[in-house]
Amino acid sequence: MLAPAFQTTMSILPARSGALPARASLEEFKSFHGMLVSPPAAQRCIRDFNGCILFMPHTYGRDVETFPVQGKSPFEVTVLNLFTYYLLVLATNTGLSTLVQQTDFVDSRETSDFVQAEPFWVDPLALEYISRHGQRKLARSGVESSSVKLARRFEYNFRLADIRVAMFHFASVTAEGDVALDSEGKEILHLVEVYQVGGGSMFLRQLLRLPGLVSRGFGFTPLAGKPEQL
Which end of the chain is less congested by CB atoms within 10 angstroms, N or C? Predict the structure, then answer.
């Protein structure tokens, strides 16, 4: 189904004194992942991702070297801000694809029904990796969490850019399955993105490494696995 480019209001209401900042809405996340969103809305989305962020090609290695118990995954993004977001929007033509209505909005919903399907498979090791991240973060606030559960799912086909991608929002949860909140009353929200680039686009594959490269200060770290990962 072809969806029109989404328009997001540029206005932002000031937060009430003592209140938590407004969380991003489903429509704002939909536009954010569709790579065509206003800076205020983009900032709300970015602020909500206070957990672990994984940005991976669909050929990622499904092993403990990719998702180590100690150390960082080569696909973990530690720096996500307006600069890195809009850099990716411009460099990959995904924003242009949505602007000229060449993006298929396949899925965008709040759901806890985690149904796996190729090519956007999220390996159990990846889930354990982000779960450990949430446990460490919440432990500093004296809160216990045991795992993660799906909160939202998005999927797009950026036809102009020849990129298909699925985004999964996971929330850290307690042993009882309730969303775990830190000492400030915030849930820990993780983002996992799995993308597939059309054949022959080696340059675009390199561009899609930008989030990870920025996180490492543009230092080069060889990626283990198949050649298609590069």
Answer: N
Residue pair 170/130 in contact by the 8 Å Cβ criterion: yes
Note whether 89 and 210 are within 8 A (CB): no
Helix (H, G, I), strand (E, B) or coil at 53: strand
Q: State pLDDT tens for residues 182-195.
A: 878 889 999 999 99
Single-letter amino acid, residue 178: D
Q: Which two tokens stand for residue 114?
A: 């985690």
Listed in sequence order, the residues at least 6 apart from 134 whose beta carbon sits closer than 8 Å to its beta carbon are 51, 52, 145, 148, 172, 180, 188, 190
pTM of the model: 0.80
Q: What are 7-10's contacts with CB under 8 Å, separation 24+?
A: 8/37, 8/38, 8/41, 9/38, 9/41, 10/38, 10/40
How far from chain centre, in Å, is Cα 224? 21
Contacts of 25 (CB under 8 A, 6+ apart): none
Q: Cα–Cα distance between 190 and 59 in angstroms, integer?
A: 21
Composition of the chain by helix, strand, coil, percent to 5: 30, 20, 50
∠ at Cα 177 (176, 179), nearest 5°? 115
Cα–Cα distance, 58 to 196 (Å, whole number): 6
Task: Give the integer Cα–Cα distance in Å for 202 and 229.
Answer: 10
* Residue 111 identity: T
Which candidate, 76, 59, 91, places its Cα nearest to that of 215?
76
Q: pLDDT tens across 17-44, in order?
A: 455 568 899 999 999 999 999 999 999 9
Give all strands (DSSP E) within the chain, no chain letters. Answer: 53-57, 103-110, 147-158, 163-173, 189-197
